Amino acid sequence: MLKKVDSSQLKVGMYIHDLSCDWMTHPFVRNRFLLSSEDEIRKIVNAGIHDVVIDAGKGLDVQDAPTLDEAQEETERELTALAAKPVVVTRVSLGEEMARATQIRHQAATLVRTVMRDARLGKAIELEQVQPVVQSITESILRNPGALVGLLRIKNKDDYTFLHSVSVCTLLVAFCRSRGMDPAVTHQAGLGGLLHDTGKALVPDAILNKPGPLSDEEFAIIKRHPKDGYEILLKSPEIGPIPLDITLHHHERRDGSGYPDKFAGDAISELAQMAAIVDVYDAITADRCYHKGMSAAAALRKIYEWSKFHFNPHYAQEFMRCVGIYPVGTMVMLESGRLGVVVEPHETNLLAPKVNVFFNTKQNLYIKPETVDLSRGLGFGGGDKIVGHESASKWNVDPMRFLTLA
Prior knowledge:
By secondary structure, the protein is an alpha+beta fold. It has 15 helices and nine strands. It has helices at 38-46, 68-82, 94-120, 127-143, 145-151, 160-178, 183-195, 205-208, 216-222, 225-233, 241-249, 270-284, 296-306, 313-323, 392-395, and strands at residues 2-6, 15-18, 33-34, 51-55, 331-334, 338-344, 354-360, 365-373, 386-389. Strand 7 and strand 8 (365-373) form a beta hairpin. Helix 3 (94-120) crosses helix 5, helix 6 (160-178) crosses helix 12 and helix 12 (270-284) crosses helix 13.
């Protein structure tokens, strides 16, 4: 039986099923193992991991601990309450914005590739080339954030580093916008998001793309990238304090377990805390050669759980309202047995988005795609509801094909 326990309850002889943290946080070569020493427990605690999932069938039990299903049900109840708050309305349809978003995605990824190359050569970042791309991303977000955000969920191992930076920029701009932040501040935050991983230009490719867990020495090299990126950006005299702060502190955590300065609480700036949420969310949803990405909906639930310690809970909840409990591009199962992909959040109820349905699981066949507005009743284009999010690999379908209807 799988149970969720606090790390203070860990004992030698327990079987760790899931360390319940993002892959760059824990110092172990595997995610599932039998605790064999007090040193392993200390490593878990020192890594800032506050709760884990144990398998009571393979090791010692904690009698009064909730099962994993019970813990997940409690999270869903809390998210249901969170979902009944308004979100920002888009200006144009997903289909209208998709072509522009595709072009922006390509331009931005090419720019980040150039920035990384220049940084590796010791050149200063030419901000006059970066500013227009941030502006294009911001304008796309204003028209319809789902288009660019949805497209950026598609990454491969060759362009991950570059598209991750574009994703963080895009999500951070959307996050700032949803919180009603000043446009000039939002632009600077987007600049910080696009440049936040510049320091990875100095990390050897063999470490950056290693198809397996990092050694302690390799992890130490990775952890230098915020400071390296900060020092690279300092070579550009016109760089502002916001991009510098986001670059240096996007790996800090509210419990002080982050790096490089181990800042805690409100010693971490508001925008750096927002960037930390966005950075982790995009990282854990991406497929890497050593890490299978989780769905956007599952990642948001992890962010929500981790916000008890690592992130500002208020910011985490606002981020979830920004992207939706079921973000655009998420594949969902409806009560009717149909599969669909979320294309637009509802203005006031994040549990009732518009969904393009395309597959009938009861009959195991594709159906003519149609848009279902889950906020409407039966006979009015709705009459269905989401029962859960689904894995695209489980059904061997590409939900991104159905983001827009032909």
